[in-house]
Amino acid sequence: MMLKALLLQNCYKLSDPALNKQLARDLLFRRFVGLDITESIPDHSTFWRFRQQLERRALMEPLLKEINDQLIEQGLYIKSGGVSIVDASVIEAKQCRPNKTKSGGSTQDPDADWNVKAGSDGKRKSTYGFKAHLSVDEDGLIKVTDFTSGSAHDSNCFTDLLEGDESAVYADSAYQSQKHADWLSQQGIGNRVTKRAYRNRPLTAEDRLFNRIHSGVRSTVESVFGVLKLHYGMAKARYLGYQA
């Protein structure tokens, strides 16, 4: 019941108190979580404690796997021979401004860090927060997740996001390295990571064609991040620490 309540909370971007109120007045919410009309509703602090327990016991990833396994059983998610599309996106920390506390310490989230990247306009943009690393299939279904501080390089989580039985892996040029190419070759996985130019070694016409052919598939994960940030509040962390 508690897990179903958290699923509703994420779907509708509800705070813990708002989730408590919604369960009190919405019969559809009650029906989904399995609460009878006469049963009492958990206090908002109960939802917070339950979420903390899931994090402490490292149950978030097993729960995601269980959901995906049930989708496989229903024929809604084809795992064997599928592809993985990998990317990362920055999440601003709940407390991101470097203000001082009364004791002289910083008010910034201690688990977060600065991320600096060039924007589409060419200007460097700094964000204090975290990074969400995702692996999705060609339909945009999230398969694996990971979270790090904002300063971690995208490629650090590359192999951890893969299941090892994909037919191919798509990612942008930040994941391009000989180490990753060798790993994919050893696993028998097709390497569709975007080619990039190096000093004194520009992209060839073949490399540019390769990038153009596979860019359409790779863009799927960018759409997933767009939906998560626009509709599910992932642009900014709701809580302090990695529990965000």
SSE map:
Layout (H helix, E strand, L loop, with lengths): L1 H10 L4 H10 L1 H7 L10 H13 L3 H14 L9 E10 L20 E6 L5 E13 L5 E8 L18 E4 L6 H10 L2 E4 L11 H27 L13
Helix pairs in contact: 2-4
Describe it.
The protein has about 240 residues and is an alpha/beta fold. The chain has two domains: about 55 residues, no CATH class; about 160 residues, Nucleotidyltransferase, domain 5, CATH 3.30.420. Helix content is about 35%, strand content about 20%. The protein has seven helices and six strands. Strands 1, 2, 3, 4, 5 and 6 form a six-stranded mixed β-sheet that branches.
Portion in helices: 25-40%
Written as H for each helix and E for each strand, in order along the chain, the element string is HHHHHEEEEEHEH
Instruction: Supply the number of helical segments.
Output: 7
CATH class of the largest domain: Alpha Beta
* Number of DSSP-assigned strands: 6
For the largest beta-sheet, the strand count, sense and barrel status come to: 6 strands, mixed
Q: Give the N-to-C terminal Cα separation.
A: 21 Å
Q: Name the average pLDDT.
A: 87
Decide which structural class fits the backbone: alpha/beta
Low-pLDDT residue spans: none
According to CATH, the fold-level topology of the largest domain is: Nucleotidyltransferase, domain 5
Beta-sheet strand percentage?
A: 15-25%
Quickly give the CATH architecture of the largest domain: 2-Layer Sandwich
Shape: globular
Tally of individual domains: 2
